[in-house]
Design brief:
This protein has four helices and eight strands, in the order ααββαββββββα. The chain is mainly β. β6 (about 135-140) and β7 form a beta hairpin.
């Protein structure tokens, strides 16, 4: 192993390496040196990621909602509403805890504690407030799904049944199949 490393070090600068490929991997490209003046710029084999082919793409429904718990009169007479935020994956509810790593709930407008992080399997957020407002839910997925975080803004509903906001996320059918 150390012999191979020494041989690589002795070779010196790499010829014909596309620095964009290294950059895409978050690495520093080795110095480039042309073999001759006629080959100073070799064609690149690096190409940006292509969108998922239609046959490998499917859609995952995400539902963010709240349940209205109750109203309590405070000593000053203003009602305080108790509510619970939740995240559902209707077609994958049994796998939800392995598909979602954590959810960040951002509450507006509130006091000092307006950001709450809930990790699987306890993804629900229980709170109270004097009025309905928006809650921004950022869902962080299991890396095996290959998804960026999904942001869903939900307006609280203080009525029987609460409220729901749904979104659709495009995901690789192959990756999603691991959770079915």
């Amino acid at each position: 192993n150390s012999t191979t490393q020494q041989q690589l070090v002795r070779r010196g600068p790499t010829i014909g390496v596309d620095p964009r490929a290294f950059s895409a991997l978050g690495l520093d490209a080795p110095p480039r040196e042309a073999a001759s003046k006629s080959t100073t710029h070799l064609p690149s084999s690096f190409a940006p990621a292509k969108p998922l082919p239609l046959k490998d793409r499917c859609f995952l429904e995400v539902v963010v909602g709240n349940h209205y718990k109750s109203v309590h009169e405070q000593t000053v007479g203003d009602p305080s509403f108790e509510w619970v935020m939740h995240v559902m994956l209707p077609e994958f509810q049994a796998s939800k805890w392995t598909m979602i790593e954590y959810v960040v709930y951002t509450l507006y407008p509130t006091g000092s504690s307006d950001i709450h992080v809930k990790r699987s399997p306890k993804l629900q957020l229980k709170c109270s407030s004097k009025e309905a407002h928006s809650v921004i839910c950022t869902i962080h997925w299991n890396p095996a799904l290959g998804l960026e975080p999904t942001v869903v803004t939900h307006d609280l509903v203080f009525a029987e049944g609460g409220g729901r906001t749904s979104a659709t996320v495009g995901v690789s059918a192959r990756r999603l199949g691991c959770f079915a």
